[in-house]
Each structure stands twice: as structure tokens, then as C-alpha cells.
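It is worth pausing here to work through a concrete case rather than discussing structure prediction in the abstract. The textbook approach is simple: state the sequence, then state the predicted structure, then interpret. We follow exactly that order.
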Amino acid sequence: MVLTLLVVSCVPTQKVREANRKLPAQYDQTQIDSVNTANISWKTFFTDPELNTLIDSALANNQELNIFLQKIAIAKNEIKARKGEYLPFVNYKAGADVEKVGEYTRNGAVEKNLKIKEDEVFPEPLTNYSAGLYASWELDVCKKLRNSKKMAVMEYLATTEGKKFMTTNLVAEVASAYYELIALDNQLEILNQNLKIQENALRVVKLQKRAAQATELTVQRFEAEVLKNKSEKYEIKQQITEVENKLNFLIGKFSAPIKRNSKGFLEKQIDSLHAGIPSELLSNRPDIKRAEYELLAAKLDVKVAKANFYPSFGIKAGIGLQAFKPKYLTIMSESLLYNLGGDLVGPLINRNAIKATYSSANARQLQAVYEYEKAILNGYIEVANGLSNMKNLAKSYENKRKQVAALTKSIEVANKLYQSARADYMEILLTQRDALESKMKLVETKKEQLLGRINVYKSLGGGWK
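Step two, the predicted structure:
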């Protein structure tokens, strides 16, 4: 007992600081909001029925998500395995064997000269039949096995949060690809409309050349602009194909046309978002919850590693029947055998391996603290950046909308000036090019607004409910 106390007193201790869970009261200069958009189901957040159908399909068929579900099943089974380790183990055993020993050995001499009954001696070779129950139980005095089971529970919970995080990302990825596809459809439509205008202008210039009112240079410049825009059209078509295939991959299907509603894209309203308070990120964001459970598991891992310094207590017992002939197995008093024993085992010399395991567990715990704090900081910054981005995009979109209106009107003015010989063909080309570019950027900005709204929703922890 004195030796045990001496060994226990030499157990090293390492102190690890607690994680910092403090968050600012609000996001930058925004007002504190009592409502949080993260609590809204994605089916309510997204109102496009075609998009919701795609998300439903992705949640059912996405391979990566289904692979992760198997990880959850594995983690759940690990809990059962760890729980079984601190319960008694009971096994049954039945066997038969035969043995021939030398006559000039102690066992051989005894068997040679000993009679069981007056008319019966030990058979040679000696057979042996047995059947019985055997039990073993490690007494979990230091809670090593129970902490191991709790650690498995924390790892399982971390895995379930990982599934929620993957769901959030998948919903956001499908929605982002969907709006990107619609934006490309609108850019293609704008390009086709612009091509009609340019091809009509090219016909007019060719007629003017025949009438000696325009030069070959003017014709060639207009024709080059038409060919340039035709080339861009095929580039957009390729992008549409790739985004469609990306969506097909996310929903677990081979290449197929994606149903979508591309009409009225520029008129889509960007609904306001409610960010709530930053502390809600701790419960809403699955990646933060996962990091928290991983931290709790790491703390339990330290306790398990520390328990290796303490002695373990075990009990072993068995009861059964054994005889050299099967008929004697029915005679309980003569064939009965049993055993009962206990042991105490603990490390004494050369504990370097245990110390190294304990030090590694402490290092992993500190690593988990930093991972948890990193997840909290990252979540806050993502939301703050997203909210700022939404405000700036709204102002940018309004200015670009006015720019498109002004440039569209300038095309009519340029054409009239050209027809009255008060402007040259370069002014018309540049005006058309600027107008086209501004329309394309307007569509791009609208897409960025929609994607920004999705990202804020995801950053707040929405999308998995």
C-alpha cells in the first residue's frame, strides 16, 4: 500500500488554460437585433421552388454527405464498444483434449500407481473433457474506462455537428451554383440582345459603304466587334455547362439539364437579414459546436492518459466441470472446479511511454483550445465581413443600375449623332461596348448580392435546420 501511494504521488500534472468564449456585444456598428435569420429553415429562407427541389435532392443523394453519415454510425458504435469495456466479461468454454506423459515423470508415475476405484485406473493416453463459465472484470476505480466512454460520446456529438456543418455548406453550395447559373443565363441573354443590335449596325454600315458614306475600316471594326461578342457567347455557354454539371454532381446525378427560373433576375428583391447577437454563434454554428465537443473529448483524453499512472484492479473467476471421461461430468462433487482471484497492477519502473502519452494528450487538449477559439473568431469575422459586404453591394448595385440606364440612353444618342455625321463610328462602338459591359457587371453584382446573402445565412449558422 505504501508503494502504491508512493507511485501515485509521482504522477505528473500539467495545467492547460481554459478556452476564451467571450464575444463582442454586436457586429461592428450594427444595432443589436433580437431576431436571428439563422433560426429560419432553409425551405423558408429560399423561396424558389426549383432551388428547393435541388437542395432536397442534394441532401438525399450527395455522396459526400452519405459518406459522412457512415462516420456517424461508426462513432455511435464506438460508444457501445467503450461502454462494454467497463462491464464484466463472461465467456463460456467447452473443450476436449488428450495427453500422453512419460512414465518416468512425476505425473506419469502418479498416474501409473494411482487407482481411482478398485477396478479402474487412469486411462492412457489421458483424455480430458471440460465445460464452464469464465468471467473477468476490471474495476474502474480511477474512472479510466468511464472517461473513455464519455470521450467517445463527445466524439460522436462532434461528428453529428460535423454532419450539420456539411449540410449547411451543401445547402449554400447548391444555392450559390443555382444563382450563378441563372446569372449566366441572363448574361447570355444580354449578349444575344447586344449581338442583334451590333449585327443591325453592321448591316447599316455596309449599306453606307456602298453609298460611299462609310469606309472599309468602319465595316471591319464593326464586324470585329460582332465576332468578339459571338466568341464570348460560346465562353458563357461553356460556363453554363460546367455549372450545370457541378449542380448535377452535388445532387448525385449524371449530366442532365437543370430546371431553373431565370426570368426577372435583376428584379429579385434582396430581403433583409437579421444577425442577432454574436454570442448566438456558439449555439447556431455547427463548426463551433463541433470544436467545443472536440475540446471536451480532449479534456477527457487527458484524464484517461493520467489514469494510466494509477494501478488497475481486476477480478477473475471461473466455474465448471472437468473429468477424463464424459460420464464423470455428471458427478458434480468430483468434477466441479472453480477459481477466484484478484490482482492489482500498476507501473513502477520505465514509465516514459506513459509520460509521453500523457504529455501528448495535454498537447492535444491545448490544440483543441486553440481550434475552438479559432472557430469562434472565424465565425464572428465571417458574419461581420458578410454584413459589410451586403451593405456595400447594395450601394454598388444602385450606382451600376443608374450607369446602365445612362449608357443605354447614350446608344440612342450616339446613333442619331452618327446618322447626322456629328459622331464617328468609334463613338458608337465604344458606347455599345461600355453599355454591354455595364449590363454584364450589373448582372454580376446582383449575383454577388444573392451569394452574399447566402454566405451571411451560412455564417450565422443557418442551413442545417
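Step three, interpretation. Residues 158 and 290 are 4 Å apart (CA to CA). The two ends are 56 Å apart (CA to CA).
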